[in-house]
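Researcher: Please predict.
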Amino acid sequence: MATLRADHVGSFLRPPELLDARRSYAQGLLSNEQLTEIEDASILKILEVQRDAGLEVFSDGEYRRGIYSGALTEALEGLVPSGDSQFTNLASAWHGPDTNLVVEALEEVRPQHLVAGSQLAQKRRIAGQEAAFLKQHAPGPWKMTLTPPQGGQFWKPGVSDQYYASVQELQAQLTQMYRDEIGALIDDGASYIQLDSLGYVISFGNPGNREQAIRTNVASDNALIDGLKQEGVTFGLHMCRGNNRGHWLAAGGYNEAAETAFSGLHVDRFLLEYDTERAGGFEPLRFVPKDKVVALGLISTKVPELESQDDLLRRIDEASKFVPIENLALTPQCGFASIFQGNPLSWDDQRRKLDLLVSTAKKVWG
């Protein structure tokens, strides 16, 4: 795949019929077969939108997932409710116009915090159904988004330690599951595999251990892909500050993570959020190696207002002072619907953003 200039993060707004179907399915009013039929039709619809907009790599919009990270949990057996509320003080952690929307969305899509309550096993491939449909129907090269596994996410002392000697043992099992899945995706014909990570720009835990946490993230993410890279397959990593109903979790630039992450990660391209001043300046990009591409997330999926192309061109020019223009690309800052309810944009707003993305990329790179 030639250098991709107009990129996207993978998720798209669900059409109304899919939103209704997912809720009906949750209420037991639709069978799995009926839901799949509506998912299939909706994916064909968003593939057509991407093709008509002129995008050169395609996704299924994450239409079979309730949340961007749901592919893993929905593929596993052995997860049990932790008994702890995951929504305590959640509203105060998010920022935006109405944080109650965030809580309502998460309560609908993931009402319980799940932990390892036995030895975990796969009941199906993590992204096998998604890949099979894209392989058959994508009108061009296609990408798959995956969320790097975090053993600590599924760990509860007194429960998980009855089945695993340590969090590290659980992490090793999840890593191997992902390596198997990535290998299978490459065999399926995926030309682009994107890892979505919160850990590089959001601090989880003690800020004093931030540098070590970033190094641990780098090692964990590299462990997913090392030895699997092949000619014609692009590996990307998206650094996210949180994306839920137009809200966000964190603000701050890439300064803390830049040198360690940009120089240490073995991916081919970085998809970076740069839609607002919350993301800081372009200076940290000086640490990006010369053989990697940076997709600048200058177009916001959080608001319906359309960006000025002149502003986009100016900012791309500013970024080129730190990364050569031939190593840059353009992308929205995140997906349009990291959670299935989606961000506060209309279907037409989304299309206008995609048109702007493609037309701006053509103006810069031809």
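Model: The chain has a mean pLDDT of 94.
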